[in-house]
Write the structure tokens for this entry.
Amino acid sequence: MVCRRTFPGEDFRGDVMADKIPRCPVCTGVIKPDIVFFGEELPQRFFLHVADFPMADLLFVIGTSLEVEPFASLAGAVRGSVPRVLINRDLVGPFAWQQRYNDVAQLGDVVSGVQKLVELLGWTEEMQTLIQKERKKLDAKDK
């Protein structure tokens, strides 16, 4: 049985990290994360936002194989004049086989690639503040 309640990720992080199946303390059902697994139906909200891609001014694609539809085709859903930025371990999807003149790829570790972007944008201080805030939350949960 799968529990239908909503839980913050921190509530079952310990179980996941301990390689245990997280269970609801109320119904004892399995807690399912708020993600879509391969083969599952996409939530309706996904289809509400697909129309945004043709209006985008910039597209970031971060940490993906771009092998599973419909996400695999989203990188091609922006206009040809729109810069696409890939931060990923490898070139994938259209970044590998249908490159555009304005594509940018930062290959390697995703965390390092995002950190580099943050530095280039001058957001290092804000990012450090966010990281510290989230670490405090995790530390409080571990106690």
